[in-house]
Structures are given as C-alpha cells and as structure tokens.
Specification:
single chain; 675 residues; alpha/beta; FAD/NAD(P)-binding domain; D-Amino Acid Oxidase, Chain A, domain 2; Farnesyl Diphosphate Synthase; 3 domains; 9-stranded mixed beta sheet; globular
C-alpha cells in the first residue's frame, strides 16, 4: 500500500480558530488541509467582534471583512448599581453566516484544502501526525496538527466538573420588536450569583445590535446552570434584561436557538500536553465571566500559525513556542476559570461594587475582566516607527519586563496581570520601563534583559501608585463590606509590595530612591487634597514620570547635570500626560486614566481652572484651549531639556516617549458641549 502524501499542516475544525490558522499558513506557502464534518443550516444570529477580533481579521491575508457595523459603546448594567458606559470599545457586529463565508472564501483563496469529513482518531506516525476520518481508508498525514474542534471535539482533553469547578453554557437567538436605541451601543447585563450560595447561577446577558434598528441578538451565558433547558435559560436572561431596559420589553425570538457548553478550562498544562496545538474553545480559551470566545479563537489561531511558521520542521518546538505565546497573551483573562468557585464570587462582588466608582484603578480592572482588549503587540507601538536599531535595543527589554510582571502577579491577581500589559484603545502604552531604558541609554549606559526585573518592578509600582490616586472614600457612606474599595487597597498594597521586592532583588542600590519616591508621592497627594495652593494638579503626575527617568540616570551613574536634565524630561512627560487627559475628558473621550472629568475634578486631579467652572459651551472651549496650551508648554519644556543631552539613541527614545504622551492632543476635536 502506498504511503499517503505528507501535508505540512492538517487542521481539525473549520470554525474561526481553525480558519484563522489555516489562512495564515497557506498564505505563507504551506500545504494545509482543514477537516470538518458537514454541519446543517444554523439559525441566523449576529456576533460581537471585539476590537481584538476586528484587528486579527484585518491582519488575516486574503480576508475581506463582510458587512458589519460599529458598536461604539457598551452599556454595562448590574442590578441595583448605576449604569456604566464603556466607550472606545472598537467593536463591531456581524452576521454569523457572513463571517463564516468570509473565512471560507479567504481559506480557499489562500489554497487551503477543505475536506467535508469526520475526524475520528489522532495517532502519531513516524515523524508526523496521522488523522483517521470516517470517509477515508487511509489517514491524512501532516507534519503539524492544529486541533480547533471546539470544547468537546476530537483531541480535546476531557474536562471534569467537580463541585469546585466552573460549569457554563451559552444560548443565543435573534430577536425582534425592540424600540430603536439612542446610539449604536450594546447592552451587557450581569446578574451576580447570590453571595451566600456558592453554587448559585450567575448570568451574563448581551444584546448585540442587528442589521435593523428593531433587531437584536440576545446571548445568555450562565455558570452553574443546574441543567436548565436552553429555552428557559434564554427566557430568564430576557426577563432580567427587560427589568433593566424597559424599551426591550417587546423582544421576541425570531427563530431557533444556538446553544452549547462553554469550556473555560484553559491551563498551560492542558495545552502543553495535548497531541497537536489546541486553539480556541479546544484550548478552553473562553472568558469565564462573559462567555466570549470568538476573539480568543481568532487570536489563538493566528498564534498557532506564527509558531508553526517559526519552526516548520520541528512540531515539538512549534508547540512549545505556541504555549509560550498563548499563555502570555491571555494572562489574566483565563486564570479565573480554573479557580475555585469561591474566587469567582469575589470577582463578581468586585464588579458589582466597582460599578459605583470612576476610580482609575477600578475602571481599568473592570475593562480588564470584561473586555479582551489584548496586547498591542508585546512591545510599545510607539517604538514601531523608529529605526530598526532602536527597536532591537528596546524590544527585548520591554518583552522581558512584561514577562516579569505577568509571572509575578498572575496567580494571585489575574486581572491585574491583564491591566499590566494592555493599552488604552489604540493608543500606545506609555511605559515607565521604556522611560527608564531610554534615560539610562541617554546617560551613557545600556540596560539589557538582565535588568528586566527592575523594569518590571518599576511598572508594578506605577500600577500600585495608581490605586491610591484621589481621596479616600467615606467609610460610612455605605453599609457592609465594599469589595471595590477592598480591591483598591489590597491590590495597591500587593503591587507596591511586589514592586519593592523586585527592585530590592535586582537593584538594591536604588531601593532607597524608590522608598523616597513613594514618600514624596504620598506627601504631594496629601498636600493637593488638603488644598495647598503651592501644589499644582500636575505635581503628582510630574513626580510619577520623573522617577523612572531619574532612576535611569542613577543606574548609569550620571553626573549631577545629566540627572537633573533627565528629571526635567520625565517631569514634563508627566505634566503633559495630565493636561492631555484633561483635554480628552473635556472632549468626552476616553482618558488614559480611564476615568471621568467629574472624578478628576472632585479628587483634585485636574487643574483648578477646570474644577471651578464648566458652565457652558464657550467656557468648555476655553478650558480645552487652556489644557492644549498647557500640553504644548510642557512638550516645549521637555524638548528644551532633551536638547541639553548629547545626540544618542537614548535621546531619540525619550523624544518618541514625549511625542507619544502628547499625541492624543493633536486629534482633539470639539467637546460634546461645544457641538
């Protein structure tokens, strides 16, 4: 009997994850086949494409994104809590069939072989994988295997459901009869479980805008559903949504339901020990709170392709490379799924209590839990436009800093790990580690990956300092335990403690400077809150960014003049940061602090002029002009300080950082009040 030809890659499953991987690989010249059992007609529903999913699709070769429409915001609702509106979400809605057709067309255009067959067994042959199918007498042989068969498909480890593990199901249906919405946003309702009953059901309900104003896709995900039938679960989710959004009362399903079990059982061990590369639902990559998995599917499929292309002749190394990629990229968005149910309840309580606050730490944590905003590439996008030599200098250091941060905090505080490595919308991550690296380089010394522990510690310290911005809450304002405030205090203390440990380990000679910096921040915060007229609003922000630059100069053992110059550069970066955030807030846009103008003014984080008066459109326009002028002045002072440094790669990086801080001011348009 002749030996079947050897393919480069065989993919089991033609969903989003499988197609994403196959298109990338075939477009790179590999011989790829997808095996997918025939699937009958499915009810039409609209899918949510998160910003990560949209970007992955746009980066997919040969793919033309089918008709879709933007979702500008998400209205987050929790029973008994104030409405929160998440802006700058960068999401879209698309009909499921349109996305399926676009992926299939891109796959065939790229040269992927599509085989309508049922995969029944995976075996290891000599130097290859052998896939047995129902219709073929001989196996499909391939050097690499990607398993994208869903949460319960072939090649997927069986997931147990002990009393201490999370179980989840999801059901969706297209519905009609809703009153037109005021904007293009979507509804996201969460019904936390009863805090006294650990086995109680938690619900997340989405209302995704459809192709007409009166049409929505309602999607209900439930944890610990106690074998509730799908129709009842959908009805319960609809009732909960109607109670919060009365205009959705007339909603009725248009057709059949789409339902399935959600496998949220991702673990590094599961993926590393599998036969082949697990992607998407097969890897358990589903957000344990929202049930969202499409963005994870597309992104993990692309990562699988990258790993195989990096090691085309070594499947074992390709799998190890994939494990490293996926375990880092999804840090914080998957750990909760393998925690005890009690840990899940703590997170639900956090979400519920945090709904009442615009504190930056809570706002960023809320988004980190609920939205897969993803990494904008592991390193800063602001260095992507620089010369390759500069990227080669800073890139490895920043990657290593990210790995230090994630490995330090992900087990104890998963969503904080997510906060540590994501940016704000499409803006660059304004990373203290890059400022540290650039200042050290400008002062005549180069940091390498061995100093990443110090850089990671510095970034954790900046996150910890963020927790203590603003005034302390009124301890008597509410009864019972405020889980959001507990998270702020305990999370901030945890981050600062871990930062101090990392800095003491890797840079004991600068530990005293670190301690003095924290003391100075505390003093400035207290003076500002007390109304000290000698402490400006931007003093704390200047001090926060001054320290990384000063630390870089100290590590380089620079002379006093260079230390002061680099302190000036960092201080002006901090001042510009605050004034740009004022401008963004006055514009009604998402700030880098992820907070609101009301929070900034009531906690004395904004300039006194802004806090005093925002009475009419003309006044707001004048305040915006003031904030823009303050930004320009800070940038000019920063550029003057840079000019005192000798030309070097470090000065170029510092210039890029300062430009990145100020860039959103250039795109500022008229404020909502002014328009």
């Amino acid at each position: 009997m002749s030996v079947p030809p050897l393919l480069d890659v065989v993919v089991v499953g033609a969903g989003a994850a499988g197609c994403s991987a196959a298109i990338q690989l075939a477009s790179a010249g590999m011989d790829v086949a997808i095996v997918q059992d025939a699937v009958g007609p499915q009810p039409a529903i609209d899918l949510l494409l998160t910003s990560v999913a949209v970007q992955t699709l746009r980066d997919t070769p040969s793919l033309e994104l089918a008709a879709h429409h933007a979702i500008e915001s998400i209205r987050l609702r929790l029973p008994g809590r104030p409405l929160r509106t998440l802006t700058d979400v960068g999401a879209y809605a698309i009909r499921r069939g349109a996305l399926h057709d676009a992926l299939f067309f891109a796959a065939t255009s790229a040269g992927v072989r599509l085989r309508a067959d049922e995969a029944i067994a995976i075996e290891r042959g000599e130097g290859c994988f052998e896939l047995m199918t129902a219709e073929r007498a001989t196996p499909l042989r391939a050097r690499h295997l990607i398993v994208a068969s869903g949460g319960a498909g072939i090649g997927v480890p069986a997931a147990g459901h002990s009393a201490d593990e999370r179980r989840a199901v999801a059901v969706a249906a297209r519905c009609a009869g809703a009153s037109p919405q005021e904007d293009s946003g979507m509804e996201m309702l969460f019904v936390p479980p009863d805090a006294t009953t650990l086995s109680a059901t938690a619900l997340s309900v989405w209302a995704v805008p459809g192709v007409t104003d009166a049409e929505l896709t309602i999607r209900v995900a439930a944890t610990n559903p106690d074998d509730e039938d799908h129709a009842s679960l959908l009805a319960r989710g609809l009732d909960a949504l109607r109670a919060q959004v009365p205009q959705l009362g007339p909603l009725t399903p248009l057709g059949g339901l789409v339902a399935g079990v959600l496998d949220t059982g991702y673990s590094r061990e599961r993926v590393a020990g599998a036969e082949g590369i697990l992607v998407g639902d097969a890897a358990g990559l589903v957000n344990p709170f929202t049930g969202e998995g499409l963005s994870y599917a597309l992104e993990s499929g692309a990562m699988a392709a990258e790993a195989i292309l990096a090691h085309p002749d070594d499947p074992a190394e390709a799998q190890r490379g994939y494990v490293r990629r996926v375990d880092f990229a999804f840090a914080g968005n998957v750990e909760t799924s393998r925690r005890a149910v009690r840990r899940d309840h703590l997170a639900w309580r956090y979400l519920s209590d945090a709904a009442e606050s615009d504190h930056p730490f809570l706002a960023k944590g809320r988004r980190a839990i609920l939205l897969p905003e993803g990494l904008k590439g592991i390193t800063d996008t602001l260095i992507a436009t620089l010369e390759p030599e500069l990227q080669a200098l800073a890139g490895p250091f920043l990657i290593a800093c990210d790995e230090v941060m994630v490995s330090t905090i992900r087990e104890d505080w998963p969503f904080l790990a997510r906060m540590a490595v994501t940016g704000v919308g499409t803006e660059e991550r304004l990373r203290p580690a890059l400022l540290l690296f650039a200042a050290t380089l400008a002062a005549g010394r180069e940091l390498d990956v061995r100093h990443a522990t110090l850089g990671g510690g510095l970034e954790l310290a900046m996150m910890g300092a963020l927790a203590f911005l603003g005034a302390a809450p009124d301890a008597h304002a509410r009864r019972g335990l405020d889980w959001a405030q507990v998270s702020v205090v305990v999370g901030g203390d945890f981050l600062l403690g871990q930062a101090a440990r990392l800095i003491a380990m890797s840079g004991p000679e600068v530990s005293w400077s670190f301690a003095q910096w924290l003391a100075d921040l505390s003093t400035l915060r207290a003076q500002r809150l007390a109304g000290d007229p000698n402490v400006s609003a931007d003093a704390t922000s200047a001090a926060m960014y001054e320290f990384p630059a000063r630390l870089g100069a100290e590590l380089a053992r620079a002379d006093d003049a260079t230390v002061e110059t680099l302190r000036d550069v960092g201080s002006e970066c901090g001042r510009a940061f605050l004034h740009v955030d004022e401008l963004l807030a006055l514009d009604g846009r998402r700030t880098r602090l992820d907070t609101t103008l009301d929070f900034m003014t009531s906690n004395r984080l904004a300039s006194d002029e802004i806090a005093r008066e925002q009475s009419d459109a003309a006044r707001v326009a004048a305040l915006k002009a003031t904030a823009r002028a303050a930004t320009d002045a800070a940038e000019k002072r920063g550029q003057d300080a840079l000019a005192r440094l000798p030309a070097s790669s470090g000065r170029e990086l510092l210039d890029a950082f300062l430009t990145g801080v100020c860039k959103p001011a250039l795109a500022s348009g008229p404020s909502p009040a002014a328009s």
